[in-house]
Amino acid sequence: MLDKNFVRENLDFVRERLATRGGNFRLDDLIAADAEWKSIIVRSEDLRRRRNEASVAIGKLKQAGSDTSAQQAKVKEISGEIKSLEEEARVVEERLNSLLHSIPNLPDPSVPVGSDETANLEVRRWGSAPEFDYTPLDHVDLGSALGILDVERASKIAGARFALLCNAGALMERALISFMLDIHTKYHDYQEVLPPFMANATSLFGTGNLPKFAEDLFKVQGTDYYLIPTAEVPVTNIYRDETLDFSELPKKFVAFTPCFRSEAGSYGKDVKGLIRQHQFNKVELVKFAEPSRSYEELESLSRDAEDILQRLGLHYRVVTLCTGDMGFSSAKTYDLEVWLPSQNRFREISSCSNFEAFQARRANIRYKSEDGKRQYLHTLNGSGLAIGRTWLAILENYQQKDGSVIIPEALRPYMNGMDIIKRKST
């Protein structure tokens, strides 16, 4: 969340940056609630001062043997007013915090201004799209014909937006997880963690998922637990309510987890196949960085995610999301988009974001600087990568005319030496 003192002292700047996101963020209501809260606090402090002065006077009167009943009655009356103001302040502060929690992060000045994805800015491309002398199939048709993807039986088991991977398909999912974890730990110096796959409401508040995006989550009925939408949630909260030393930064973690999303509001979008699922696997990269270096860390994080695509030989591009297309908590986001031949377009496979101090303030994660001051650090994360989308990108980009799929060379050691997935002969 934003620092309310910063908002108060830099109102015009905050208003201008929020305007680039579009929408109504009730900034005026926030300022009004803040002013009301401050007014109550001032009145409370004045009453406490008067009560203290009255108490001192009562002590002197008692020493002089005088009657103090009138003064004590006045002190009791002031105490009642203070108690009433304390309750009023609590109610206003709750409203103030609710408004503050609903306001998104401020876009970094380097972020292109725009209302939707059409204003996103392409930064670079890698590789080239495969050429086919036939109409390429999509991953569902390919996977079904190869006997490695069964959407119909997954629907019978759980419902729409689930997948059942079989045989070489299940093996390739597992292979991709191990491959990505190995690359990020051996070559990119991330520490591997295996976090809980559920998180409490406090953790989800820390990353910005709650309260605004509750409908996107699966809640475990009768508990404070939610199925995690991404490993970002548990890994970022590893250091909630803790203070790190500057010498420890940056801290870099990689985690594999399943992810669970309700996909509220996405009905009718990508209903076929693995693009948009209720449950999917992902390898996530998370960094805790010193503020002055966080944008350097964003660049290296995105390059680490790109390395996976390059090793797999998948054509992709990197785009900077515009102000209107960024996530709620992000100050700047790069999307990595992989080429899908069946759609003749790029599709997102990773988002790499710098949240600056937005999440750290919500989760109370600080660091002690070299001069001993305690301040909020910056958090970053990105997919390194989404497993299902990598799986389908391999199928579509490495498909052959006979319906077989070549296994990328870098992945073959994780596939028991298998170099091609073929249709079973009938």
Structure characterization notes:
The protein has 426 residues and is of the alpha+beta class. The chain folds into two domains: 4-101, Serine-tRNA synthetase, tRNA binding domain (Helix Hairpins); 117-421, Bira Bifunctional Protein, Domain 2 (BirA Bifunctional Protein, domain 2). 39% of the residues lie in helices and 21% in strands. The chain has twelve helices and 18 strands. It has helices at 4-9, 11-19, 27-63, 69-101, 139-146, 151-157, 168-186, 201-207, 232-236, 294-311, 358-363, 387-397, and strands at residues 121-126, 149-150, 164-165, 191-193, 198-200, 218-219, 225-227, 243-245, 251-260, 279-289, 316-320, 332-340, 345-354, 366-368, 374-376, 378-386, 405-406, 420-421. Strands 1-11-12-13-16-10-9-4 form an eight-stranded mixed β-sheet. Strands 5-7-6 form a three-stranded antiparallel β-sheet. Helix 3 packs antiparallel against helix 4 (69-101) and helix 7 crosses helix 12. The chain is elongated and about 105 Å long. The termini are far apart. 38% of the residues are buried. The mean pLDDT is 95.
The assigned structural class equals: alpha+beta
Rough shape?
elongated
Q: What is the fold named in CATH at topology level of the largest domain?
A: BirA Bifunctional Protein, domain 2
Number of helices: 12
Domain module tally: 2
Helix coverage percent? 25-40%
Low-confidence parts, pLDDT < 50 over ≥5 residues?
none
